[in-house]
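Quiz preparation item.
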């Protein structure tokens, strides 16, 4: 299994964290994990909606060390 990819979007505001995560996920293999570090409080709602709409799985999220951390798994093809 590949190591998770980390995407640091701290300091960016809606919709940029989700847009950058979507771009990163498109470049990954199915099943790959993406860790997103963000500071925009709206990202919590945005990533939940993003996962529901795209089929990517939101594995975990929470606050740590002054920022938000999301773990997403890229959906399988088809």
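Solution:
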């Amino acid at each position: 299994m590949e190591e998770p990819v980390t995407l640091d979007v701290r300091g960016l505001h809606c919709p940029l964290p989700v847009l950058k995560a979507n771009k990163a996920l498109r470049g990954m293999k199915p099943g790959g994990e993406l860790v997103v570090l963000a500071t925009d409080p709206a990202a919590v709602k945005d990533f939940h909606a993003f996962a529901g709409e795209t089929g990517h799985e939101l594995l975990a999220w929470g606050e740590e060390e002054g920022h938000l951390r999301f773990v997403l798994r890229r959906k399988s093809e088809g």
